[in-house]
Design goal:
Elements lengths: L16 H29 L6 E7 L5 H9 L3 E2 L5 E3 L10 H16 L6 E6 L6
Antiparallel strand pairs: 1-3, 1-4, 2-3
Helix pairs in contact: 1-3
Length: 129
């Protein structure tokens, strides 16, 4: 009998400890960069622009960094199958460009570590998806 066992690829569900520490450091650096950029923008330009906000969106729900975000309770799944992180919650700003600046700094920090993300902005009255 020449039976062959077929193996099927499975999704990786766990992150090893070194990845957790590394990605946690990346998350902290990205948050710091985001906050610094936001405060600098407000100091230079004020908060007098169109009201709205911005999110950082990750396309791959199974990427190691996104799995860490899920474990830490950061962000939420979107109906589009992506992961959304709302930054700078609790800050007193209203302008879309203020939040966009912070999100762009966050994404730029992630790009340095080859982590893919994008910024999505919205006006005050727009649907936030």
């Amino acid at each position: 009998m020449n039976a062959k066992i077929l193996t099927f690829p499975t999704k990786q569900t766990a992150i090893n400890r070194a990845e957790v520490i590394s990605f946690s450091e990346v998350l902290e650096a990205a948050w710091d960069s985001s906050l610094e950029a936001t405060l600098e923008f407000v100091e230079q330009n004020g908060d007098y622009f169109e009201e709205g906000g911005a999110h950082v969106v990750f396309a791959d729900l199974n990427a190691p960094f996104v799995r860490l975000l899920k474990v830490k309770g950061v962000g939420e799944a979107m109906s589009t199958g992506e992961w959304k992180v709302s930054l700078l919650l609790g800050l007193p700003y209203k302008s879309r460009c203020v939040y966009e600046t912070g999100c762009k700094a966050f994404v730029e920090e992630l790009k340095l570590r080859n982590i893919s993300a994008r910024v999505v902005t919205f006006a005050k009255d727009e649907e936030r998806f």
